[in-house]
Design brief:
It is a single chain. With 324 residues, the protein is of the alpha+beta class. The chain has three domains: 81 residues, no CATH class; 106 residues, no CATH class; 104 residues, Chitinase A, domain 3. It contains 13 helices and nine strands. The strands form three sheets. It has a four-stranded antiparallel sheet. The chain has a three-stranded antiparallel sheet with strand order 2-1-9. A hairpin with a 2-residue loop joins strand 6 and strand 7. Helix 3 crosses helix 5. The longest helix is centred in the last third of the chain and has 31 residues. The radius of gyration is 26 Å and the shape is globular. The N and C termini lie close together (6 Å).
Length: 324
Amino acid sequence: MRAAKPICLLALSVIVFAVPTGYLQAEITNRVVSTVNSDIITLHELNTSMKRVTGRSPRDLRQRDVEKYFELRRSVLNTLINEKIAQQEIARLEIQVTAKDIEQSVEQVKRENNITHEELIQSLKAEGITLEEYKERIKEEIQRYRLINYAVKSKIVVTEEDVRRYYENHIDAYRAVYEVRLARIFLRIRAPDDAEEIARVRHLGSEILQGLRQGRDFFEMAKKYSQGPAASEGGDLGWVALNNLETGLRNTISKLSPGGYTGLNPVPSGFQIIKVLEEKEGGVKSFEEVRDAIRSKLYKQKVEKKYAAWIEELREKSFIKVIF
């Protein structure tokens, strides 16, 4: 954006003090950073997307590494530009996706991965995604596939030979590891230098352990006392590969049977008690078990490749301006 010509300092002061702070902030965060044909991308959209991708605020990212911050910023903006171009084509072609289409796709994902609806929710929760956010992503994928089907005349085909070759070349990816379903009661220490608070939290943890030994329900205790993830669901963390756990915790968990729980263990910023709810043995999944999931994966890869090439063609025909 071209810098304004210097103006009288007094006049500037009058303007700044006459305009409410909130208005100035809104004006800054909603300024245009790119135009894509008839659409715009605002700084607010860019910042929101950066936080969604990284889980951190743009301010935090910049403070950590300025060079990587600008590199990520360019990458995310490039993705947003592609999305705008795609949405313009979707609107032009009047491509519709119904709620039924989305629900059918969700059911297909569960069938291909042999999981229940509850297991899907737990998996999404582990990734920090809500079911509604997941459905929105599915909607975008369906739109993309239909866009490709319209734009690409040659049909995308994945053969049985393609699927089997992929399975054989990636057999390690289909080794089911030993998994445990865990629940946790986490007690937070807000002032790590406060000896009295540490003692108070440790005492509470000891009382909870005593209650568990006397037969109190773990889920109810978690709902009442836990300050960690999924506390409202009884601290249920879902299924976790044992190998992904920290070494000390892994050694402790491996000695427990379903129904068993740990003692009061210190962790960064607090104490925790973990219970083993269920366990799954490892093994290699058969080709029949994973055939449909592999076919969908390969089909998606081919779609993405054609989609990227097609979007690049549209970009060359579009009017795009980046304003930083």
